[in-house]
Amino acid sequence: MLAQMRKLIGTGENPPGSNNNFITDWYGFDDAWCNMTVSYAAAKSDNLDAIFGKHAWTVGHARRFQSKGRWHYGVGGIRAGDVVFFDWSGTRSIDNIDHVGVVEAVHSSGKITTIEGNTSDKVLRRDRYSSEIVGYGRPAYGNAAPLPPTDGILRRGSKGAAVKTLQGNLNKVMGSKLVVDGDFGPATESAVKAFQKKYGLTADGEYGPASDKMMKSALKGGTKPQKPTPRPPGAGKLVVDGQFGPATCAALQRSLNSHGAKLSVDGSFGPLTKKALQGYLKVTADGVIGPQTVKALQKKVGSGVDGKWGPDTTRYLQKALNAGKF
């Protein structure tokens, strides 16, 4: 699976923003293709059954893993080869999943290296962090390691260090006066329900991603969940290499923000960035980077004008960003 994902690195769209390439041709239609990439790599490595079939819809794929008992919220126990699902808004809810990739490596620092399709309109390696991860599915590979003993949600009957931490936090935030014994019993469940009710969450007594996010904020005196903090590539001179990767995208976002765009600088060429670029170029802001947008971009940066966004267009864009002329 990973060997197939690595072979795809660098695959883009023709033109960028069109959602068209050989992966979408294989799948059967042009649309957001991050999950199509996972499906394509699985099919080409005889792992389609292991990921439970072809999927284009990330939410549906996560639910499929969940229905097969191969889903885990958060990153506890995550391994290379797992299919990892993201929510950029940080709600950590399956229903709000935006994106998906395959884990290539897990680092002791908490960073996770992934390979993802449809990220800045390409298949690229990315470094990701737990704040943007909803959870992961473990494909039924022949040599797959067993999942952690729970699905990442603390509920009645859960035991261990994570329950002790929760009980201590409930005592700090709610004054619950729980015995910190690591045993999620009726008293802990009642305290969780009270916490959830106070902060406007579904009061089901199960401590999952939404409750955990709210707890992190409450421990700092907040009354609303904290939004995840993007970790964009650092500012500085771009390498003029014709590769429209995260560093170039982040530089573009910073430049658009200097013209009033108010984008989150995350290095991801998403719909808001595309529309902001189109607004700056004074073309129809529909979020689809077609020939009209590309020609306007090419005229702006001084490259050849053919309506196709290739490496030459990106090189001229990089030069303009480096010179502060975009």
UniProtKB/TrEMBL annotation:
Pfam families: CHAP, PG_binding_1. Residues 160-210, 251-297 form the Peptidoglycan binding-like domain. Residues 27-118 form the Peptidase C51 domain. Coiled coil: none annotated. It comes from the Bacteria. Residues 210-235 are annotated as: Disordered. InterPro entries: CHAP_dom, Papain-like_cys_pep_sf, Peptidoglycan-bd-like, PGBD-like_sf, PGBDSf. Gene3D superfamilies: PGBD-like superfamily/PGBD. This is CHAP domain-containing protein.
